[in-house]
Write a structure and sequence with these properties.
Helix content: 25-40%
Number of helices: 3
Radius of gyration: 16 Å
Distance between the termini: 39 Å
Structural class: alpha+beta
Number of strands: 6
């Protein structure tokens, strides 16, 4: 693991090494994606883009909400986005008709990134998503 200020490209191995530095548990799913579980969500760390130059960190809330709460959730997400820059939050309806909520954080590292920069993005993505999930649970009366 590099501790210098050298800009290096993203890779799944590099990201898993950074998670190891923190002592965090992670997994590789059946699609080959790097993920882990933190508190209220499951997170994936994916290099994306034509040259794998962007790091997308996607967190999924570990709960669902009934479709009857969809308008409430949409309103909560809209208010969140008015007040905060991160994370980008959205919802999906799953095959059972339940509302799933996702948070997303994407940074373009086309020129490469230092380990410290990547760790800062990882910390920010996880902490802001967990804050959103906690706030959503409070709003929905599930806390």
């Amino acid at each position: 693991m590099s501790t210098d200020n050298v800009l290096r490209p993203l890779s799944r191995d590099r990201l898993s090494g950074l998670l190891d530095v923190r002592g965090w548990h992670w997994f590789i799913d059946k699609d080959g994606d790097l993920g882990g579980n933190w508190g209220r969500g499951q997170f994936y760390f994916m290099p994306v883009g034509d040259s794998q130059e962007m790091l997308q960190i996607m967190g999924s809330w570990n709960k669902t909400a009934p479709s009857e709460r969809l308008d409430d959730i949409r309103g909560f997400i809209t208010r969140w986005h008015r007040e905060r820059l991160w994370p980008k939050c959205y919802h999906r309806i799953d095959d059972e008709g339940e509302v799933r909520v996702i948070c997303d954080n994407v940074v373009d590292w086309e020129q490469g990134a230092t380990d410290a920069q990547l760790l800062q993005q990882i910390d920010c993505a996880i902490s802001t998503a967990l804050d959103f999930f906690r706030s959503l649970e409070e709003f929905l009366g599930e806390n």
